[in-house]
Amino acid sequence: MKEADYAQRIERAFVEIIIERSERKGFKKGEFASKVWPDMTPKAAATRWNSIRIKASNTGKPQSVPIADAQRMADVLGENLSYLLAVAIEKARKY
């Protein structure tokens, strides 16, 4: 297994976990995005979240998740980032 591929699997697993937990908490996509990036317009935040979740319009690939954004997402969910990453690592190992 290539290390870069493994790192990307961890990142995708992390995004899946964030999506699952945000939906479980009742957040709509745009609402969650606005809470993660309150300094952006709601439309810009929703576009950014969509680029991370699915794919960026310019590259056709999902956008990477910076650590600062991962921390913001965990904070909005009231979760510990290190715990979410540990869960993502376990999930990525199963792929």
Plain-language structure description:
With 95 residues, this protein is mainly alpha-helical. It has one domain: 434 Repressor (Amino-terminal Domain), CATH 1.10.260. The chain starts with a helix and ends with a helix.
Blueprint (SSEs and pairs):
Layout: H1 3-24, H2 29-36, H3 42-53, H4 67-77, H5 81-93
Helix pairs in contact: 1-5, 2-3
Core attributes:
single chain; 95 residues; 69% helix
| CATH fold annotation | 434 Repressor (Amino-terminal Domain)
> Which CATH C-level class is it?
Mainly Alpha
Class by SSE composition: mainly alpha
Helical residue percent? 55-70%
Largest sheet: none
Summed over residues and divided by their number, the pLDDT gives a mean of: 92
Shape: globular
Question: How are helices and strands ordered from N to C?
Answer: HHHHH
What's the total count of β strands?
0
Label the CATH architecture. Orthogonal Bundle
- What is the domain total for the residues? 1
Uncertain regions: pLDDT < 50 for 5+ in a row? none
What is the straight-line distance between the termini?
A: 11 Å
Strand content: under 5%
Radius of gyration: 13 Å
Quick structural gist:
This protein has 95 residues and is mainly alpha-helical.
